[in-house]
Amino acid sequence: MTDSRDDGPMVTAKKNSDELTAATVPHAQGSSAVARAVTINKPVTEVYAYFRDFSNLPSFMENVVSIDTPDRARSHWVVKAPGGTTVEWDARVTEDQPNALIAWTSEEGADVPNSGRVEFRDAGQRGTVVTATILYDPPGGTVGKLIAKMFQREPAIQARRDLRRFKQLMEAGEIATPAMNRKQFEEMGL
Amino acid sequence: MRALTWHGKHDVRVDTVEDPGIVNPRDCIIKVTSTAICGSDLHLYDGYIPTMKAGDILGHEFMGEVVEVGAKSTLKKGQRVVVPFTIACGSCYHCGKHQYSACDNGLPADNQDIAQELYGHPMAGLFGYSHMTGGYAGGQAEYVRVPFSDVGPIVIPDGIEDDKVLFLSDILPTGWMAAENADIEPGDTVAVWGCGPVGLFAVQSAFLMGAERVIAIDHFPRRLELARKFGAETLNFEQTDIYDALMLMTGGIGPDAVIDSVGLESHGLYVDNVVDQIKASTFLGTDRPHANRQAIIACRKGGRVSMPAVYGGFVDKWPLGAFMEKGLTLKTGQTHVQHYLPGLLQAIIDGKIDTTFLISHRMDLEDAPTGYQKFHDEQNDYTKIVLKPGLNG
């Protein structure tokens, strides 16, 4: 038997998906993998440009407190963690193809080692397909992942919701909220 | 402000709650002048709909006056508007195709998880109808925050009273879309199961679309009488064998199109029926899938099935074989309200569609709890209640 794979994305493989996915990310850091795709009804130039300016990311990434960008390659992330704490890391861009791809990896000493890639593909009339693949080592391993899930700070849940918010922001110009007024909005967060 | 709030099964109260305000640039705030209690609100009242929280403001059929606008709203203060019950962004792929109830962005991101798990994809948001449809505060209140106000609400010209246009918010476009989904051709015979508000509007709409005959099916004599008023022939399923009657009335052919608007009063997602197998078997015992089965069996070969009736989970013993062998076509879905508003407003202005016949009672918002109780217990007399804030001064 030859070892053949179908055309399904690596991360959707039923066996060893994390390892397979790691192979798709340069400078892979992290043992858990998550991949999500969303189609955004805007031109690829616009979608890429907004995402590439990392200081924009906290506008739709709920758990990201702040991102400092000393230069275009480097960034410092402060992210909410379970139990009212925060985790921090430095990251650097390992690959950047305008309107096509951004890949990053965390630097040594990261609280949560992580790496990933976000691909942007022109989908014609449909807009832009954005595919995010993230590898990470959850704090406290499997237990940490469970705890994070309980607090809804699990990266797989967050990635899905963050991409939805990104889509809303790009398409509708604002992020849908059930808050009745500004006060409730401040209490709810994004 | 004052608002009708949900506190549990058969426990709704008019409370003083926080005033709404502009949150996003495309928002507007309206001062409600009329708001109806929908049959689907009774499912909330009966406690069937999960993800409700104490204090939630109900109501998804409402209209009023614009009193505040966000920077990107296209409305102006003082305009009278009717608000669609579906919350849609107007700028995603689906809105671009006028599939507003399939809007990608109407639901807040966190509220999309349940629908994504249940149906594979999240749908548009809804006003005042639990947290899995967005957790948006509803319209049975003095004021409402309306998101995406530049694409949702339709401006009503002066001189047209609320009662004539209020039902543009939900049940009129739902009945219209039900008839449209039946792809009616001139000379067609159309059978409509269920003569609630949506079924009755479907009867009117079917005639406007060229149906030669409409046969309306129900068991409430009052409802059948209303259907007859609009020109339908009627069948009472407690008195008559429906299949046999339809075959005799159509020369053995069967209706060219069938519309299942039974149980349409529910816009709700019957998640309890999805997750709870015991309740699921109870669900199967109701007559809603029964009407649907009957419609499919009666429909002529190559005919069309339109299903405005809301189904949230799974049905068993659905006649898939009859469906395939007869080559039927099914069209269904939550209403793309925004798509139908301009045309239907014009039809009302031109006097082609009458909506006021439905309203049996008008009450002050303060009396809403009584309204719910009466609407729940005395359905024959209370066909439709419209709440008017400040009616009693």
UniProtKB/TrEMBL annotation, chain A:
- Name of a matching Pfam family: Polyketide_cyc
InterPro entries reported for this sequence: COQ10_START, ORF3, START-like_dom_sf
Domain (Coenzyme Q-binding protein COQ10 START) spans 40-162
Which domain of life, per UniProt?
Answer: Bacteria
What protein family does this chain belong to?
Belongs to the ribosome association toxin RatA family.
What PANTHER family does the entry give?
Answer: POLYKETIDE CYCLASE/DEHYDRASE AND LIPID TRANSPORT SUPERFAMILY PROTEIN, POLYKETIDE CYCLASE_DEHYDRASE AND LIPID TRANSPORT SUPERFAMILY PROTEIN
Q: What is this protein called?
A: Uncharacterized membrane protein
UniProtKB/TrEMBL annotation, chain B:
**Keywords for the protein's UniProt record, in alphabetical order:** Metal-binding, Oxidoreductase, Zinc
| Zinc keyword on record | yes
Pfam families cross-referenced by the UniProt entry: ADH_N, ADH_zinc_N
Write down the required cofactor(s).
Answer: Zn(2+)
- Top-level taxon: Bacteria
**Which residue numbers delimit the Alcohol dehydrogenase-like C-terminal domain?**
197-265
Keyword Transmembrane helix in record: no
Write down the InterPro entries for this protein, in alphabetical order.
ADH-like_C, ADH-like_N, ADH_Zn_CS, GroES-like_sf, NAD(P)-bd_dom_sf
Q: Please give the Gene Ontology molecular function terms for this protein.
A: oxidoreductase activity; zinc ion binding
Every copy of the Alcohol dehydrogenase-like N-terminal domain together lies at 25-153
Family label: Belongs to the zinc-containing alcohol dehydrogenase family.
PANTHER family the record matches? DEHYDROGENASE, ZINC-CONTAINING, PUTATIVE (AFU_ORTHOLOGUE AFUA_2G02810)-RELATED, ZINC-TYPE ALCOHOL DEHYDROGENASE-LIKE
What protein is this chain from?
Threonine dehydrogenase
